[in-house]
Amino acid sequence: MNVQSINMQAKSSRQQQAIVRREHLVDTALALFSQQGYDATSIKQIAAAEGVAVGLLYHYFPSKSELLRAVWERHSFLPELRALLLVEHGETAACVLQKVAERFSAMIDRKESLFRLMVRESQSNSEVADCLHAIVEEGITALGAYLETRVELGELRPHNTALTARMLLGTVLTTHLARLPIRPWVELVTQLLHGISAHPN
C-alpha cells in the first residue's frame, strides 16, 4: 500500500469519526432540549454532557440555533419524506400520499416529545419558531414539487400543490398534537384528491 492510499484511508477514517461525533452531539442536544427546554440548555451543558470542549462543539455548530436546526433535520420527517417522494412514475399519487401520511404519523408517534417541544418552544422563542418554520416549509415545498410532477403527467388537475401539501402534513400533525383518536389517512387522501363538491367543475 502506497503513501497516498494510506493518507486517503486516514482521511476517510477522520471524516467518518467527524460524522459520528456530530451525530452524537445532535442526539445529546435533543436529550437536553427535551429535558430542560431550549432556552434553559446552554452550549456548555451540551458539551459537558458529551464530554467534549465547548470549542469543538462550536467547530461543528457555529451557534445554538444551528445546532437546533441540525437536531430537527436529523430527527424530523424530512429525510424520510424525501425518500418517499423518489418514486417511479407508475406509482399513483394516491398511494404515495397515503404512505406519506402513514409514515409521518408513525414518526410522530415515535418522536412525539420532539414535536411537542418544538411547538411549545416556538411560542416564546423566535429561534425555535424560525427553525420550525424553515423545516415545515421545506417539507411542503418537497411534497408540492412531487404533486406538480403528477399534474404534468396528467394524473392530477392543475391546482395549488403547496396548499394540498400543507393540508395533508398539517392535518396529520394537528391530529397528533390534539391527541385525536381517529386517524383515517386513507379517507383523508381520498378527500384531498376528489374533493367534497357534489358537482365538481
What does this structure look like?
The chain is mainly α and 201 residues long. Helix content is 75%, strand content 0%. It has ten helices and no strands. Helix 6 crosses helix 10 and helix 7 crosses helix 8. It is elongated. The N and C termini lie far apart (71 Å). The model has no long low-confidence stretch (mean pLDDT 86).
What is the secondary structure topology, with strand pairs?
Elements: H1 3-36, H2 43-50, H3 54-60, H4 64-75, H5 78-84, H6 93-110, H7 112-122, H8 126-152, H9 161-177, H10 185-194
Helix pairs in contact: 1-2, 1-4, 2-3, 4-8, 6-7, 6-9, 6-10, 7-8, 8-9, 9-10
Structural class, from helix and strand content? mainly alpha
Mean pLDDT, rounded to whole units?
86
Q: Classify the beta-strand content into a percent band.
A: under 5%
The ordered H/E elements are HHHHHHHHHH
Q: Describe the largest sheet.
A: none
How much helical structure, as a percent, in the residues?
over 70%
Spatial shape: elongated
* Low-confidence sequence ranges: none
Count of strand segments: 0
Rg over CA atoms, rounded to whole Å, is 21 Å
Q: Total helix count?
A: 10
- How far is the N terminus from the C terminus? 71 Å
